[in-house]
Request: fold
Amino acid sequence: MNKQDQPLIFELSNPGRIGYSLPELDVPEINIADVIPSDYLRVEEPELPEVSELDIMRHYTALSNRNHGVDSGFYPLGSCTMKYNPKINENVARYNGFAHIHPLQDESTVQGAMELMYDLQEHLKEITGMDEVTLQPAAGAHGEWTGLMMIRAFHEANNDSARTKVIVPDSAHGTNPASATVAGFETITVKSNEDGLVDLEDLRRVVGPDTAALMLTNPNTLGLFEEEILEMTEIIHSAGGKVYYDGANLNAVLSKARPGDMGFDVVHLNLHKTFTGPHGGGGPGSGPVGVKVDLIPYLPKPILVKTEEGYQFDYDRPQSIGRVKPYYGNFGINVRAYTYIRSMGPDGLKAVTENAVINANYMMRRLAPYFDLPYDRHCKHEFVISGRRQKKLGVRTLDIAKRLLDFGYHPPTIYFPLNVEECMMIEPTETESKETLDSFIEAMIQIAKEAEENPEIVQEAPHTTVVSRLDETLAARKPVLRYQKQ
Reply:
């Protein structure tokens, strides 16, 4: 039996085998029916596998080996900054004084943790050019919603509730219009010009007295820096709106440019991306939000403040939008980000941007002869190429992504942004070596040649993975969500 044929845990089951040991019960035993209504209890005992501890360990180890992660291979997922997580971050996050504290402890007993949070806020204020920061939001999209709710509270406090529309470029992250909708706004799309940047004339056309905000990703999802950014923020401010900065692509501008200096009123950051917290698997993440001074009253409460007596949480915030997450944010991710910032220092963070931009431009130019390059210009941390010429040969971008799995690489983001046909968005990040970039480039070049000479090998990929090509339509319509014994 080879590794790909590893049996499932149910097939390993043998009656009487036990894979766990529990300590002796030191509390009174109870009848479960006395505490849970009978309607919620199973009539029959669940059929669970009976296996040894060794079988359990091998089962989950085998499953983990089938997963792709940033520690096991290159992860060029454009727009998501899947970069290496330094292990010093993990070590610091496991310090007893961080890992073993509880959010309900008295403030006097967790002053060290509160100092770290306060210091992290100060660093993020400096990095973004904002006046105040909250660490509460649990992810980027959660930060977007939090920022929009503060903008909404600001307008309502100024008796300007007619501002019901949020402008979102067609090159925006997909979470932007979703967050605006959840926050109670109507979204208006502004188109891109031929250079892949926001069309200023179209922006002026859609701005009006009902404009609550513009949500902008800069650099945008095409990897291009918005050259007219100051004029854009002035257009919105002149109309009485606020400007929101989607900081998911901050990896491209660290220590080079600050949203606050560009005229933005709100910014969210992805600590689990730009600042090397673990990313993926549903969390945990951290999406701090920074604001300019006129939005400070609306920040989620409590606010962490520094006093002569020490660090305290301030709950006396009458205009606050309220708490947006239990307790004070995902503390462990904040510890990792703080460790990264302190380890790198100002010069290190600047080098992050420089190397990320160099890596992206190097890869873009190497691939340009083999794929369509919709925007033939200098990019920032990521770039887009198109599989249009391969599509004419019967090979779709999806096929290219599947074929990359055979080379051991996670595919880039595909079919996004939506304004590029057969799009592939690639972000190498600054942590990858030239050797890794060259190896990925050679794989992409080989796939491009296969599309011309032997398209079937691409169309039927992947060939070497545990699971072959899936019927994705059937999987979406009729998913198998539970094990069925054969």
